[in-house]
Design brief:
Oligomer: single chain
Number of helices: 5
Strand order of the largest sheet: 1-2
Strand content: under 5%
Number of strands: 2
Order of helices and strands: HHHEEHH
Radius of gyration: 20 Å
Largest sheet: 2 strands, antiparallel
Mean pLDDT: 93
Low-confidence stretches: none
Helix content: over 70%
Structural class: mainly alpha
Shape: flat
Length: 104
């Protein structure tokens, strides 16, 4: 078995252990305000990191892609205007596509 498969198996075991630790945590620990705040903010931070990586990374390096960045900006504006989620996605896609078409 290659080193990659050992890494995959170790990751699977780590994920299972983490899930098991979460399920076996005592209720008083889960009811702690700090833990609840952490649990509420982690998904936001992970989503922001995913957006940043998908917007500004190309392979192993940072790459400023102007149409993609403009699409992200359009999505932020749509969010600030409290547009529905599908409208936000469509706005970002249309702005990115139009700018790619104009710059290609």
């Amino acid at each position: 078995m290659s080193g990659v498969w050992w890494a995959v198996l170790a990751t699977c075991a780590g994920c299972y252990a983490l899930k098991l630790a979460g399920l076996s945590a005592p209720r008083r620990l889960l009811d702690h305000p700090g833990v609840q705040r952490f649990a509420a903010l982690v998904p936001v931070a992970l989503l922001a990191a995913l957006i940043a990586v998908q917007t500004f990374a190309h392979g192993q390096s940072l790459h400023l892609d102007w149409p993609r960045t403009a699409g992200l900006g359009a999505a932020v504006v749509a969010l600030l205007l409290r547009a529905p989620f599908l409208v936000v996605l469509a706005t970002a896609a249309v702005v990115t596509a139009v700018l790619r078409l104009l710059t290609a």
